[in-house]
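Q: Start with the shorter request: fold the first protein.
A: Done. Sequence, then structure:
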Amino acid sequence: MRYRGEEALGLVETIGLVPALKAADEMLKAANVELISYENIGSTLVTVMIKGDIAAVEASVAAGAKAAEEIGNLTAHNVMPRPISYVGDIVSVHDIDG
């Protein structure tokens, strides 16, 4: 899914794929958000990216960060209310349906 900066952006970064998948699952269940993409840097850092309205993204990222921390290593999480559209070029490199 191409992200153009029109909605809030949520990110959760973990060490390893298993906590990232757990985070993604919880993020998508926690609120009305959409999965944009993921980034896997080698076999270590994995970032899951979602979009939606600010309240939904905040709730989603909180749930995903908590879930990842419970089973693995959470390295970072962030909510960007409405980043500039150029950020979309970065986060859409590995978009889910592209």
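Q: Next, the second protein, separately.
A: Sequence, then structure:
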Amino acid sequence: MRDLSSPAVQGSGAMKKWGFIAMHAAVAAAFIFLLQRFSLNASLESSLLWALTFGVCAAGLAYKQANR
């Protein structure tokens, strides 16, 4: 009985892991965008580039943490 429920639990864990990674990337990108755009008065292009960079880095860090 326990073996039948294992794949469902693993699938749910995988969804939580990818959701955590996506949330981490989105929050980091939004934070750096708002910081650059409104606090530092950077251009829109520069703010978007930094947001993309920080989002990718944050996703990488979250992925490494989720696989520990």
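Q: Describe the second briefly.
A: The chain has a mean pLDDT of 87. Residues 1 and 7 are 12 Å apart (CA to CA).
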